[in-house]
Amino acid sequence: MAIPGCFRDMIKSGIDTFRVKWISGKNNGLESESFESFAAAYSFVFGEGVATTVELRLGRTPLRASSSFRLQRTTYRGENPALITNPFSYFWGTPALTPTGDAGKLQNINLVEGLNVPLSQLPRFQTDDPILASFCHLLEEYGKHLARIGRTLFEGMSKNLSLDPSDSKSNLSESTGLVRVYRYPQWLTKSKNQNKSAWGMDVHTDSSVLSILNQDEVGGLEVLKDNHWFTVKPIPNTLVVNLGDMMQAISDDIYTSVKHRVKVNEYRERVSVCYFVFPGEGSVIRSSNYKPFTYSDFQGQVQQDIKSIGYKVGLDRFKLRDV
To answer: Going by DSSP bridges, is the β-strand pair 221-225/260-263 parallel, antiparallel, or unpaired?
Structure first.
């Protein structure tokens, strides 16, 4: 189940295409100063891929950033209609997107870009580009297989937990499944004083019930176990399954949402594909350790925390306290 070279190329082409659409779209809502910040930051982190778009939009020499450039987050001035009507949304600097595609207030900018693809909306996407059409078809087929694997894993865990079958059905809804494709750039250490550990993704837990990762041979994924970080070395034809926050709550903390992070490689860029699945809309998670909540409640609280304090608090917001 390794990522085939042709699929890897399509992922990179797809990300490039939707990045350009996101930047240059007439209604993307970016103020010119925000666009310049994005262009400079993007050129600094990912290379020269944005230079042509900068010239087209701003009509000036491509922006270049020095090694001392401080990364800035590009924000939306209002909602971007394309992100609501289009099954694809492009992100960079963080995977923590709001429904409108805005990253919100963040403590750190990560070295990552990618596409967020809700599988239920994918059939709506129409394109005359044969590469994008093939890319969409592959994502759709890939999502179907991963949904089957996710359902099988969840049913096994539910049986082990002696959960009510009706609750199990609503606690994982395949209609919520989404695929994210990630690209982490090569990060060269330019000096002895520069931090050699650059992060493609900071320490976090997934908000999903479970996440199924297909990573390439470059590696970089690390998981926390017994207060020690372990590298998850890529194994050909192998998927990595992470349990998320929703599974931890559903299981009354018997299963734990894994803390993980991604380190970028000094010599090669990394590409990965991850399938996420969540509880059904309106499905109430009931647990002796947490007050009842829906995934929408949880997602709303996460976005509120990111906006107000810059990071996700997660399940601790819903934990029942001893009186």
So the answer is: antiparallel
- Is 270 a residue of the active site? yes
pTM above 0.85, yes or no: no
Q: Please say whether the beta carbons of 10 and 134 come within 8 A.
A: yes
Backbone angle region of 193, left / alpha / beta, with phi > 0 → left and psi within -120 to 50 → alpha: alpha
pLDDT in tens, 117-166: 899 988 887 778 777 788 888 889 999 999 999 999 999 999 999 998 87
From the candidates 261, 270, 286, 317, give the one annotated as an active-site residue: 270
Question: Cα 11 from chain centroid?
Answer: 14
Question: How is residue 279 annotated by DSSP?
Answer: P
Q: Which helix (H) or strand (E) element contains residue 294?
A: strand 293-294
If you search the block for the tokens 């050699």, which residue do you land on? 196
CA distance 59 to 39: 13
- Tokens representing residue 190 in the block: 């330019």
Strands 89-92, 173-184: pairing kind: unpaired
Helices 5-24 and 32-46, interaxial angle, to 10°? 160
